[in-house]
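Quick start: read one record
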Amino acid sequence: MADQPVSIRSAGTAVLLRNSDDGLETLLLRRNAKLAFAGGAWVFPGGAIDSHELEAAANEQEAALTATSREISEECGLNVPAQDLVHFCNWTTPLGEKRRFATWFFVAKVGEGSDNVMIDNGEIHESQWIKPQQAINLHHCGELTLMPPTYLSLSLLKHYETAELACRALAERTPYDVTPRLCRFQDKIVCLYPGDAGYSSINGALSGPRHRTVFTSQGMLYDHSGDDVGFVPMDQP
């Protein structure tokens, strides 16, 4: 019997920002290592949209805003109203994964009270406010486990000096929507994105434009290169 297709749940994620004496910082939460999905990874606050939120909303984006505001409160104890959330991209878990989510990504500035992070020590085991470049450096040193959406969001955020500038710029930027396709190439796991020569056939060896994340012993490396990628780099303003 063929494997049954995995249903895709709608979800929302919040990239929370604050200004510090050292510059722009974002909030990362470490998931319980025993969790089936992204166990041990450092992620942004977020989670699945509840069915009643979908039923009550005019559309999925409205439901995602409501759910993401709720998840922020539940996962880290901060209060960020839905109207403060700025949509900037969507990620859908690749085919072949046991759990799949179609996730709305939002960004928002946290003002007073950003130090009042409270975690449950159940699903979330640790939290930290950190500069995007510092998180990337720790990832490349093997000290911070990240997933591609988190890594690329951090790579984008590192270009902004303040939370206000980041929110304003991402509000004006055309949101991108991506469903990675996984393959192996040269003994490495590769996430292929639209515009990569191998995306349609899920073949990382095909010559042509590159749009992919490669998992290496030094962490993830993002490659947007060659002519006619036809997809805006996800790590650039």
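The longest strand covers residues 8-20.
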